[in-house]
Amino acid sequence: MVTLRGCDRPDLLPFEEVRRRLGLMTRLPVGRREVPVAEIIGSVGRVADFDGCFRPRGKRLRADIAERAANPAVIDMPITLLQVDHAYFVEDGHKRLAMAIAAGRKDVEANVDRFETDLHLAPGTTMASIRATAQERRFRRVTGLDVALPRRRFALSDSDGYLELQESVKAHTLDFSRSEGRLVSPEEGARHWYDTLFAPILEILEANGALRLLASMTDADRFLLFRRGLDGPMDRDWRIPAWAIEGGLANVRGREHRRGVRARLGPLSRTADRPVQLLPQEPRDP
Known about the structure:
Helices cover 44% and strands 13% of the residues. The chain is of the alpha/beta class and 286 residues long. The radius of gyration is 24 Å and the shape is elongated.
């Protein structure tokens, strides 16, 4: 069976999980169109039957497809696809799509319905990136940052760090409420956290040339690295204290020293970073 040229996906993306994690809601009709097969990256309910390049996994399924291929008219029947941004998922017509790919076709005719999203999906999107994005969206929702800064990203290379990042926002909001003598809203507290802690830390790192040293890290990665060891209650006019700045910069220098040692020891002793590709959102607020 001919495979899809340039395809190296081991598995199809399960639409049910994608829909749940990204909060896809309303299904809208699009109509009949020609769709590039390279943009079809997932399936509704049949990820176990086909690999990521729509090759049938089982002998029985391969035989069934070969039998259908004996009727040339079958391959021209439109399939049914669900569109999410620039990616498509097969709802009906998996076998016909496999036949079309085997025949070397680059486009297929399909009846398409669309799910709206503010996220970017395209060929190359992985379930790891979708799961990480879902965790980021949850972090923004539970802290109030989704309302306070709706266009600001807080991507992390290791999504396990969202619990630490969430604790930072919530603890700051509590301190802010105490200093104000009232219960501030999550959105107000989150914005205050961003203005008095998150953004100033990034400015400190930039002023000290640390952004160049941390080029492989996201803003949220840099923030967590700097703030570890920064604790204590926040007074009304609180600002990041000098001792915390020195401690944060020491964390940065220590990380770069450890990376240099691992590089000298060689790849067998290196603990690799765990970057997670996150789905791009709209540009962040300035």
